[in-house]
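@channel sequence for tomorrow's demo:
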Amino acid sequence: MVEPVTGPATELGRVAARRPWLGVGSLALLATLWLAWGLAYPVMGFAMATVDPLTLRTAVMLFAGALLLAYVGATAKRLLVPRALWRDLAISSFCNMTVCQMGMTLGVYYIGAGRSSVLIYTMPLWAALFARLLLGDPITLRRGLALVLGALSVAALFAQHLPQVRNAPLGVLANLVAAMGFGFGTVWTKRSAWPLDLTAMAGWQLLLGAAPLALVWLVVQPPVDLARLDAAHWAAVAYMSLVGNLVAYLVWFRLVHLLPTTVVGIGSLVVPCVGVLSSTLLVDEAIRPTDLLALALVCSALVLVLFERRVAVPHHRNI
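structure tokens (generated this afternoon):
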């Protein structure tokens, strides 16, 4: 016979099920991510004025990943990945880091920081699709509407740059491949239970993702003139390493752990708005009406998803 469980624990579960996804902690993490990644786009564009994309991306990922794993080792947290999970780690690292980060860097190089930040954040659309196929995550009416609003915000930001983007198909393709890789890699990470610290997870993904780029770098050996880097360019590289990678990926994997894939994907849609606005301000361009329209659409999508009530799961016991 199966009877529903009753009592205080069940009541606490029902209360938790009625809570929205958005809490103070989740909001603080999202705000950190918006700033860290949004500001990284113009900073990246500035750094690539003196450092080629392959060298910059490889160095930044290796440095950030090594720092994260060194911290984990120093604090005696679990560092080693179980052998059974290495395949999943390699797949998610290749998609999240190798494909996404190099595609994003090439996109910024070819079509600029603002436009790249818009195209990269078609990622929630791909993540929702992959999460549905691989995890069975439901695309509810609210989430579906939020995805539509997110797509419209991307279209609004993209439309104002369409004439220039038509002249850089490689940059567009690089960004879209990066977005698909990031969406797939996020879902692939979510599908496994990782018995190690999230700091170690971020560090391993950065190092493994940088490995193929390092091999390509050794073959290509692009010229690197460190004498060309002044204090401002070194500061840009430091920001990309410590904030755009180390801090941002710690926050990202924490959010992936806490929230459904579709929710965290849509929650990241503020990043392109920060990216476009910060790029506009840093190059002294006027903010256009489409920028404000995109921001309004993104905020609407966030309200729909992050205040969505959790679906209660009935608890039963066998008697």
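heads up for whoever presents: Strands lie at 2-4, 316-318.
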